[in-house]
Amino acid sequence: MKKFPEGFLWGSALSGPQTEGYSLKEGKSASTWDYWFKENPERFNEKQGPQITSNLYENYVEDCQRMKAIGLNSIRTSIQWTRLLPDGKTLNPQAVAFYRDYFTKMKENGVKPIINLFHFDMPMWLMDKGGWETRESVEAFRFYAQTAFECFGDLVQDWTTFNEPMVHVECGYLQGFHYPAIVDIKKAVQVAYHTLMAHVKAVQTFRKLMPQGSIGIILNVSPSYARSQSAADLKAKKAADLVNIKSFLDPAVLGKHNSDLVELLKNNQLLPETLPEDEKDVAANTVDFIGLNYYQPSRVQAPEKASFPAKTLDDFYQPYDWPEKKINPYRGWEIYPQAIYDVAMMMKKDYHNLPWFVSENGMGVADEERFMDDSGMIQDDYRIEFMKEHLSYLHQAIEEGSNCFGYHTWTFIDCWSWLNGYRNRYGFYRVDLEEDYKRTVKKSGLWYKKLSERNGYEE
Ligand code: BG6
């Protein structure tokens, strides 16, 4: 039996825009997703947009009971900036009432809410002014954070500022996947910097308003593994870790920018614009905990040809197709559970063993109805196996002293996923889009209940 520490959080992760629906109703204004879908629905898988998603807005009371029914003792989800403050200044009473009741219902069902403020959902009114490219975004976000702490701070003690900030930087400004879908490395660095300062200012506000609470940030930590031990490949690996891990983890936990990253940016004439007081604010506003999302590692190699100064990330490192990798055949992502041990030990060694939790880990499956049995239940043994493999490495790291306090899967119910719509299913509950968003528990949900009740599992 693999037992986990007492009080371990067995949870799941969600986000507001991916589950709530009602995307332009009840006073909510448009985020970049609402705007982009209206302008360009073909970009979205099967033209599935953000309007309805999993319709949690109408189902949250029963959904909170469903959380309890599969043993979840924690949920981390996000609130939507565009719902709480539709124009950035005016409080939306319907949003306050909805979120207050949602968090209350979670708690009545024994589910601890960990609430995140931003999950890729930039308000369109702010994007029209330049979004994260402008310094104005820092104060706009700080004000939103303050409003959220004031409205819900009596119900929610544990907060996070951003989910995977490097995703809106890379997908929006380097890879053309998310709005505004431009490729401009200089802008990408400035966007990352303003996002970091928005996080710092939110933490500073939190310390004043909620001295008893805890605050963190959620980072997608995909450790990179080099193709070979050659100096060039190792240099590429180092650059990948600087960009993808240390860019946010160092300032958030250690209160300072990573000096090698600063050097790399400087050499490539990529340093962002800053204010003189920023460094002091970064140093004074470190986090209480970290959430780490892990799906797959990144395999890297030295670029064959690189521009100098760099124009894209490819000039620092390039993806490497490791021939021995094990693949999730239903999503195409690599399965490499050992990496969860590696990041856990990195937290212990390089980040003074700060408390942290797995804030997302999960297995996406396309066309999952093919695994439905005659009773209508998805027999997702592959997902149980995936969780066991990852939990086994996590358990080992905890035994060796890594300070991990919880494991959150992606996700509780099947949810809408940006450009991929409902292509990849991850939930413990299937959501039937054809049958009024009916929820049906999957085999993995029943397994998770046992896991949570026993605080561990039989190997
Ligand atoms: C995570 C994001 O990285 O990946 C989620 O935080 C997203 O928002 C999830 O839904 C799964 O992504 P995909 O592309 O497989 O649907």
Strand order in space, largest sheet: 2-3-4-5-6-8-11-13
Oligomeric form of this entry?
Answer: single chain
**Structure classification:** alpha/beta
Shape: globular
Average pLDDT confidence is 97
What low-confidence regions span 5 or more consecutive residues with pLDDT below 50? Answer: none
Helix content: 40-55%
Q: Measure the end-to-end span.
A: 6 Å
What is the tally of beta strands?
A: 17
* Number of helical stretches of at least 4 residues: 15
Count of discrete domains: 1
Bound molecules: 6-O-phosphono-beta-D-glucopyranose
Tell me, what is the CATH class?
Answer: Alpha Beta
- Main beta sheet: 8 strands, parallel, barrel
CATH topology: TIM Barrel
Which descriptors would you attach to this protein?
8-stranded parallel beta barrel; alpha/beta; binds 6-O-phosphono-beta-D-glucopyranose; hydrolase activity, acting on glycosyl bonds; 15 helices; TIM Barrel; globular; 459 residues
Task: Give structural notes.
- It is a single chain.
- This protein is α/β, with parallel strands linked by helices and 459 residues long.
- It has one domain: Alpha-Beta Barrel (TIM Barrel).
- 40% of the residues lie in helices and 15% in strands.
- It contains 15 helices and 17 strands.
- The chain has helices spanning 16-19, 32-39, 56-69, 81-84, 93-108, 124-127, 136-152, 165-173, 185-209, 231-254, 259-267, 278-284, 338-350, 381-399, 443-454; strands spanning 2-3, 9-13, 74-78, 112-118, 158-163, 214-220, 224-226, 289-293, 298-301, 318-319, 356-360, 365-366, 404-409, 424-425, 429-432, 438-441, 456-457.
- The chain has an eight-stranded parallel beta barrel, surrounded by seven helices. Strands 7-9-10 form a three-stranded mixed β-sheet, with helices on one face. It has a two-stranded antiparallel sheet with strand order 1-17.
- A hairpin with a 5-residue loop joins strand 15 and strand 16.
- Helix 8 (165-173) packs antiparallel against helix 9 (185-209), helix 9 (185-209) crosses helix 12 (278-284) and helix 13 (338-350) packs parallel to helix 14.
- The longest helix is centred in the middle third of the chain and has 25 residues, at 185-209.
- The protein is globular and about 60 Å long.
- Keywords: Glycosidase, Hydrolase.
- Its EC number is 3.2.1.-.
- It holds the Pfam family Glyco_hydro_1.
- One of its GO terms (molecular function) is hydrolase activity, acting on glycosyl bonds.
- This is Glycoside hydrolase family 1 protein.
